[in-house]
Amino acid sequence: MIYVWGYDLSEQKRAERLDESDLNIKNQYPLVERGLTKANAHAMLRDLGIRRPQMYDMGYSNNNCIGCVKGGMGYWNKIRVDFPEVFYRMAALEREVGHSCIKGVFLDELDPNAGRMENEIMPDCGITCQIEY
């Protein structure tokens, strides 16, 4: 099986570490292989008349699943505003499983002013997401 990753040029070291972690998996990194950043890719899409995913236009740094468990406080507070049904569904699920996706705080206790979306580094979807979907 071949996995295609959306890592860009700034994530070349991350791609190398992933390759080293499991030699039985074949990974491809089209943006890294072509020396492209995410901004380059977005510009190419724009020039071709192809709309980028709406999540970018809404201020999210990645087009991950809505309600991605990798998000930080700022991300989840933005989800609370943009997609309240997803936020509250995840908050209930956290209580059901007894574990939070944000270290140290359950979503139903998250201060609505906590976190800064623009300062958070959130990874792109990974192998877990690819396996799931």
Sum up the structure in keywords.
133 residues, mainly alpha, 2 strands, globular
Give a description of the structure.
The chain has 133 residues and is mainly alpha-helical. The protein is built from 7 helices and 2 strands. The chain has helices spanning 12-21, 30-33, 38-47, 54-57, 73-82, 84-97, 127-132, and strands at 2-4, 26-28. Strand 1, helix 1 and strand 2 (26-28) form a beta-alpha-beta unit. The longest helix is centred in the last third of the chain and has 14 residues, at 84-97. The mean pLDDT is 87.
Short description:
This protein is mainly α and 133 residues long. It is 44% helix and 5% strand.
Write the layout of secondary structure elements.
Layout lengths: L1 E3 L7 H10 L4 E3 L1 H4 L4 H10 L6 H4 L15 H10 L1 H14 L29 H6 L1
Helix pairs in contact: 5-6
